[in-house]
Amino acid sequence: MICLSKNDQGADLLASYLAKTLDAPRRAELDRHIQECADCRGLASAWERLDEFAVPAVSPGFDARLYARIAREEARVLGWQRWLWRSIGPLAAAGAVVALVAFLQVPQEPDAAKPENKIEIEQVAQAVDDLNLLIPIDR
Amino acid sequence: MEAVVALERDAQLMLRVRAGDDTSFGLLLERHRGPVVHFLYRMVQNQAVSEELAQEVFLRVYRSRERYEPTAKFTTWLFRIATHVALNSIRDRKKEKGHQSLDDSHAETLGGLERQVADRQPTIEQEMVHEVKLREVRQAIEALPAKQRAAVLMHKYEGLDYAQIAGVLSCSESAIKSLLFRAYEALRDQLAHMA
Q1: How many CB atoms lie within 10 A of CB B135?
Q2: Which of B82, B100, B118 is the last residue of a domain?
Q3: Is residue A85 less than 8 Å (CB to CB) from chain B?
Q4: Is the ipTM of this structure higher than 0.95?
Q5: B139 lies in some domain
Q6: How many CB atoms within 10 Å of residue A120?
Q7: CB spacing of B184 vs A14 below 8 angstroms
């Protein structure tokens, strides 16, 4: 027995039954059941009543209004991006200039600290020491 | 590469939108405009509000294009956005003015429906009967808790399956089955006198 109320596919069964897409044996079975079961008969009747809920046609200007909204929104986003660029762009440029100036103003390390200069000084000191060795001690 | 080939058409279109192809966005809009607006209309029961919300949905889709990944079916993703937008709107409207009277939007709805049935030229009596029935259906749907309402609308009118609705509402499939059935039982009870 198919009872819509006792079937977890009840809503789909009802839909298929009324759309006449159920296979013949099941449809015949449900036909018989609906004759006997007031609950299921009521369900079938309610489903058919819902067909009376017709809808008005979509307004002709619907698409035009939508595209106008999209265009407005895109223009707003573009405007916001431009504003952001105009506001932040000069600030970013100014920041870059300040950073460059600051970099140029930083005192350079003394030459002596550079490794190649350090080696050169050591070599000179060594040479002076060598010269000292050439001078007789008892002079 | 195989995964890309196997992608559903909507997901392929959305990937093209992500790559900057606005024509594909137009195709997606063409395919889903109706279902999204109609779903939202039945959720909030007001044409102007539903179209405003639908615009918000497609705007969000467009905004998210660069982050889009085809991890779920496109429809599931789309209806998740639509449901989120609708539930927020319902919550905000409840906060603003309490329970909204159906009568506020009734005239507007009838205006829309009038256009649809104009060719059939029903009698005044038929129109009145239709109005009463329609009002009762609208009231029955509006009386459902918002999540149940969303599930019913996706299942009944948009043809989403259990798995997709579960994806939209972030629930398990079994939870959706029972949620839907409770909703249909509530509708049956509300509409019983109309049978």
Answers
A1: 16
A2: B100
A3: no
A4: no
A5: no
A6: 13
A7: yes
Is residue B107 one of the residues assigned to a domain?
no
Q: Which two tokens stand for residue B99?
A: 């329970």
Report pLDDT for B4.
46
Which string of DSSP letters, residue by residue, matches B13-64? HHHHHHTT-HHHHHHHHHHHHHHHHHHHHHHH--HHHHHHHHHHHHHHHHHG
Q: What is the model's pTM? A: 0.72
Which of A37, A66, A74 best probes binding to B when mutated, by most B CB atoms within 10 angstroms?
A: A66
Domain with residue B150: its CATH number is 1.10.10.10
- Per residue, the 3-state secondary structure of A86-110, as one string, reads HHHHHHHHHHHHHHHHHHHHCCCCC
Residue with tokens 């205006």: B111
* Structural domain boundaries, residue A91: 61-105
The number of distinct structural domains making up chain B is 2
In a domain, B151, yes or no: yes
Touching B: A residues 24-53, CB under 8 Å:
39, 41-43, 45-47, 49-50, 52-53
Residue-wise pLDDT tens for chain B (195 aa)? 444 445 789 999 999 999 999 999 999 999 999 999 999 999 999 999 999 999 999 999 999 999 998 888 999 999 999 999 999 999 988 877 655 455 455 545 444 554 454 555 678 888 888 888 889 999 999 999 999 999 999 999 998 988 999 999 999 988 998 899 899 999 999 988 765
**Tokens 């991890």, located at residue:** B71
pLDDT tens digits for B81-134? 999 999 999 998 887 765 545 545 554 544 455 445 455 567 888 888 888 888
Residue in the structure block whose two tokens are 């029903």: B122
* Domain around B173: 144-195
Both tokens of residue B6?
Answer: 């196997």
* Residues B61, B7 share a domain: yes
